[in-house]
UniProtKB/TrEMBL annotation:
Compartments where located: Cell membrane; Membrane
Lineage: Bacteria, Bacillati, Actinomycetota, Actinomycetes, Kitasatosporales
Coiled-coil parts of chain: none
Pfam families the UniProt entry points to: BPD_transp_1
Domain ABC transmembrane type-1 stretches: 24-204
Protein name: ABC transporter permease subunit
PANTHER family, sorted: GLYCINE BETAINE/L-PROLINE TRANSPORT SYSTEM PERMEASE PROTEIN PROW, OSMOPROTECTANT IMPORT PERMEASE PROTEIN OSMW
Length: 221
């Protein structure tokens, strides 16, 4: 980048709108599917950990160990088995979400008042029905708080996957560095931030829709 050159060339952005949209879609898929997969794994795992507390410590230890492995190192490990594909990015990102989602599921279930469980049992709810229809809905705010953290983190980490050719908007970061051209770098960073903020806002909205009783409390107050 030479002195006096603008940080952002708007004409370049205008010429690449379609391509930017395509890479944004890829980035969103690579970032959010791991969160969905992580939630599918974490909910039953969290229920088991809440039911059998001895299981929680080893599960959380394994999840934290996986989270401590640098993303690029984990990508390289999976390259051997899944090649330079999207799965090589999504599998590690899914594993990363477990260290956030499993504790939030456990904490969410632990936040359910014991009288509520007893009342559900007295009404004839079996263990599975009570968890699905009573405990998990009450745990939603705590669970979604974890999903928000996992989603923002996952969307940010996707860009690292460009080092193996699967990084969504990370393509523009590496391309801009190679060409010493800041416009694609700045554009990619801004788009990634917007994706993270929009996803977080939509999750807050989802929480409000799934917990109408919380809105009633606020209105009553």
């Amino acid at each position: 980048m030479s002195d006096g050159e603008p940080l952002v060339r708007w004409a370049w952005i205008g010429d690449h709108i379609g391509e930017l949209a395509d890479y944004t879609g890829v980035h969103l898929r690579l970032g959010l599917l791991p969160v969905l997969f992580g939630l599918i794994i974490s909910v039953p795992l969290g229920i088991l950990c809440h039911r059998w507390r001895w299981l929680y410590a080893p599960v959380l230890t394994v999840a934290n160990i996986l989270y401590s492995i640098p993303s690029l190192a984990l990508f390289m490990i999976f390259v051997k088995y899944t090649g330079l594909t999207e799965r090589t990015v999504m599998i590690p990102l899914t594993l990363y979400t477990l260290s956030v989602l499993v504790p939030n599921v456990v904490d969410g279930l632990a936040s359910v008042p014991e009288p509520v469980r007893q009342a559900a049992t007295a009404l004839g709810f079996g263990p599975v029905r009570r968890v699905v229809q009573v405990e998990l809905p009450i745990a939603v705010p705590v669970v979604i708080a974890g999903v928000r953290v996992a989603a923002v983190s996952s969307i940010s980490l996707v860009a690292v996957g460009q080092l193996i050719g699967q990084g969504g908007l990370g393509y523009y970061i590496t391309r801009g560095l190679q060409l010493d051209f800041p416009t694609p770098i700045v554009t990619a960073i801004v788009l990634i931030m917007l994706l993270a903020l929009t996803t977080d806002a939509l999750l807050v909205l989802a929480q409000r829709l799934l917990t109408p009783w919380s809105r009633s409390k606020v209105t009553a107050t």
